[in-house]
Amino acid sequence: MVEMVEQPASAEFDGQAEATRSTAGLFQWSDYVHVGRGAEDCEHGQDGLCKDPEHFHAWVCLPNTFQIRDITDKARASKARKVRSLRDTDSDAHEVIEGDLYELRSDHWDELVAAIARAQVEKRLVEIVHGVVEGDERFEHHDQDREELQRLLALPEDEQDKTEVERLQADMLAYSEAMQTVIDRENEAEEIGVEAYLHTYYTWCIYVGTREPHTEQFSSRRKFAEPAALHDAAPEIVVALREKIRDLEQRTIARSNAAGNS
Fold it and tell me: Rounded distance, CA 213 to CA 126, Å?
């Protein structure tokens, strides 16, 4: 369970009090995360002195602007590699799209990832349509065929060439099915690419921003020795940390909007 520690809107600190002021009180975009039975109420949850092996305590802050740039570059590269492998029909990754999407959805990221993926695919819709037309000789004259079908259907029924109408209608249906197949495939690849981006982004945000709690002015000791160490963390800890990072990001957005910087 994640505990959000509310800080006073303003406070005066003398020199002695400042020495014991918590790290979350010193940095605006930070908070504590406590996981484990009784961790929320642990008296040493913020000073780094807890010895309970069932407790996880951390001070979490957002990466700074320099770190965010590096993290974003890593996430973009991760997405590019994933999407590239999915579009390679000879790669193993191409064969496991459905399995990856199942895992993605089971982690409750489906709405976020799908929305981002759809937006990316929509930007490429003209390119996708062109690819379908160029890739199948049946659709080489699709626009003319559509116009011809509309012309025939506008005629009185007894004047219509039934054979030609049926042929054109079959071509229109085939075109729609081919287009939907390509769009579905692009959406699937894009969703997995977005998930790769978010996975890399939040892995590095958690690694960079999760520190050992104590009462010094800046907690510089990281909770995890390396990003890969998150693979050994309990699921509850990973979820709590990721949600805390996302919560802090939302606070910065809300603050920016309130200040008229949206």
Answer: 52
Give all strands (DSSP E) within the chain, no chain letters.
30-35, 56-61, 210-211
Q: What is the pLDDT of residues 34-61, one digit of tens each?
A: 999 999 999 999 888 999 999 999 999 9
In a domain, 33, yes or no: yes
In a domain, 104, yes or no: no
- For 168-205, write each residue's pLDDT tens digit: 999 899 888 888 888 888 888 888 888 888 889 999 99
**What's the full length of the chain, in residues?**
262
- Please report whether residue 170 resides in a domain: no
The phi, psi pair for 2, rounded to 5°, reads: -100, 130
Count of structural domains, the chain: 1
Q: Report if residue 213 sits inside a domain.
A: yes
Pairwise CA distance, residues 139 & 92, whole Å: 30
Distance of CA 13 to the CA centre of its chain: 40
Its domain, for residue 232, covers 15-67+206-258
Quote the crossing angle between the two packed helices 162-209 and 142-154, to the nearest 10°.
130
C-alpha 35/C-alpha 57 separation (Å) is 7
